[in-house]
Amino acid sequence: MIMQTSRYLPLLLCFCVGRALAVTPIQLHHDASPTAHVSISNIAGTVTVQGWDRNEVQVSGELGDGAKPLSISGSHGNLSIKVEPQGGSGWFHWASDSRMGPTALEVHVPRAASLAISVISATLVIDGIDGGSIALDTVSGKARIQARTPSLKVDSVSGSIELGGHAEQADLQTVSGDILAPTLGSVAKLQTISGHIQANGGPWRKFSLSTVSGDAQLAGALAPGGTFDIDSMSGDVQLQLPAATSAALHASSFSGDLRSDFGTPRQAAHGPGSSLDARLGDGLGRITIETFSGDLRIRRQR
Fold it and tell me: What's residue 98's pLDDT?
């Protein structure tokens, strides 16, 4: 047995050395302005961005096998970090190069920096950003954002979106990924095909939500004169509103069950469906909720 092991030991050593050489350690830094715009792209692996109290961008981690040497390009106010395959003519050339391994990026940026990040099959984590805008594009990686930002825009295909901190204006879109957003600000736009949405926040000056088959659970207040619009095809919708809400409420469902703590729904005279029109408080704002086959619940917060 010992002799058999010794026969394969050189092969095991070669394998281990090959694995060690498959990734390249990253250690880069570049001076940056306090409110610099930082763009980051990665094809596969992870991207972790941490805000800190230095006027500097620092990148560490491991560069995957088959990737071009990494650099931080640009000026103090506009910096770019881009992972690309060797021999590729552009970022989306990655599909023709199966040899490119995952890259792990750990990026420190000034706390008030603005971010533009694009990933394909990479988990994305953002923490400690306070003051800058954030724009994210992801295909299949989960996005977790812990930040205070005036503007957040996320486009995701199958990855979920988890928001912490506070986004004064948020535009969150997924195809099949879930959206968890308990700290939305005054303006929010949420869209999904089949993902589940759970959101809280406000007071909302303008809120809109659109879903095809994904369910939505919402809770929040409407600002004076604010607007609130929900459109669902087959997803169930549950909305909780404060008792002191001031708005003209219109809700309808073609074939779903409609129940409300505000007013009494009425059944259609001919065929399926029910609707509700009610005046809440002074009626200063507007709430419109429409579903096709999804159930609708409008509850008073306790």
Answer: 52
**Would you state the structure tokens that stand for residue 121, as one six-digit string?**
């099959």
Same domain? For 138 and 182 the reply is no
Tell whether 140 and 174 lie within a shared domain: no
Which tokens belong to 87? Answer: 């021999």
Q: Are residues 46 and 125 in the same domain?
A: yes
Strand 266-267 relative to strand 179-192, pairing: unpaired
Give the residues across from 192 on adjacent strands: 211
DSSP character at residue 86:
T
Contact 82, 62 (CB under 8 A): no
Residue 263, phi-psi category: left (phi > 0), alpha (psi -120 to 50), beta (remainder): left
Note whether 71 and 129 are same-domain residues. Answer: yes
Q: What is the pLDDT of residue 13?
A: 41
**What pLDDT, on the 0 to 100 scale, is given for residue 4?**
46
For residues 71 and 168, membership in a common domain is answered with no
Residue of 22, 51, 55, 57 lying closest to 132 (CA atoms): 51
The residue segments making up the domain with residue 81 are 23-148
pTM value is: 0.87
Contact 121, 43 (CB under 8 A): yes
Q: Using an 8 Å Cβ cutoff, are 114 and 35 in contact?
A: yes
Judge if 86 and 165 occupy the same domain. no
Does 140 lie in the same domain as 106? yes
- 16 falls within a domain: no
Helix, strand or coil, per DSSP, at residue 18: helix
Contacts 24+ apart (CB under 8 A), 233-236: 233/291, 233/292, 233/293, 233/294, 234/292, 234/293, 234/294, 235/211, 235/291, 235/294, 236/291, 236/294, 236/295, 236/296, 236/297
137 and 164 in one domain?
no
Mean pLDDT by 10 residues, the chain (302 residues): 43 42 85 98 96 98 95 97 80 53 97 97 96 96 96 96 96 96 96 96 96 96 96 96 96 94 86 89 96 95 85
